[in-house]
Specification:
The protein has 9 helices and 5 strands. The protein is an alpha/beta fold. Helix 3 (about 50-65) links the parallel strand 1 (about 40-45) and strand 2 (about 70-80).
């Protein structure tokens, strides 16, 4: 709820926070999709998110396949997190209360066969001091698989595209400097995801 937001800035009203987010989306064009720079990648990393975010990232991955983008393997980077009520309402076919299984169920229902074929679920426990898995903790579990050197495509969305590219590449450079992995983050724009939502719902989604 709003308590999670207040710990970041207790003086920021929900309506003001939403206005700041909306201005950012317009000014930096986060409402527009970002597409890959290359045609071929060693692997595809679908980064964890809430259920609507996973859904959009899977559909965007389908689009990349239809556009001819090639990759040798697919990894869904998720971790331990209890689903919010709005996620279960948005996707009534879900049978789970956990992010990892949720991502798998959405993939199985929405992904093209080519996307499902070589997919591997990466599941991270929360790091010490964190209530849920983080981008870094999921990448660490991914690296336990000793992935091949090369360029990897990360799927995120909207405002998270440049942020998660920075987080993932910095983590790799710092902790696995000799692994030879580089990442590019792409994904769909935010579109009208927030139009019908309340100010609190919008900022809670942005803080996931």
């Amino acid at each position: 709820g709003s308590k999670r937001l207040e710990k970041f800035n207790p003086l920021l009203a929900l309506s003001a926070g939403r206005q700041i987010l909306d201005l950012g989306l317009q000014g930096f064009k986060f409402d527009e999709p970002v597409y890959p720079k290359e045609n071929t990648y060693e692997g595809l990393l679908i980064l964890g998110s809430d259920a609507p975010g996973i859904y959009e990232r899977v559909l965007f991955s389908n689009e990349l396949i239809n556009r001819g983008t090639k990759f040798n393997s697919v990894y869904i980077l998720t971790g331990q997190r209890k689903l919010e009520e709005y996620e279960k309402k948005a996707f009534p076919y879900l049978t789970t209360d956990d992010e990892g299984q949720m991502a798998l169920e959405i993939l199985q229902k929405e992904a093209l066969p080519a996307l499902q074929k070589n997919s591997v679920l990466i599941y991270s426990e929360p790091p010490e001091g964190s209530p849920r898995a983080t981008t870094e903790s999921t990448v660490e579990v991914f690296m336990d698989l000793s992935p091949k050197r090369g360029n990897y495509l990360c799927i995120s969305d909207g405002i998270f595209i440049p942020y998660q590219e920075l987080i993932v590449q910095n983590f790799l450079n710092k902790n696995y400097p000799n692994a030879g992995l580089t990442v590019q983050c792409v994904g769909p724009g935010v579109k009208d995801t927030f139009e019908a939502a309340s100010d609190e719902e919008v900022l809670n989604k942005a803080s996931l």
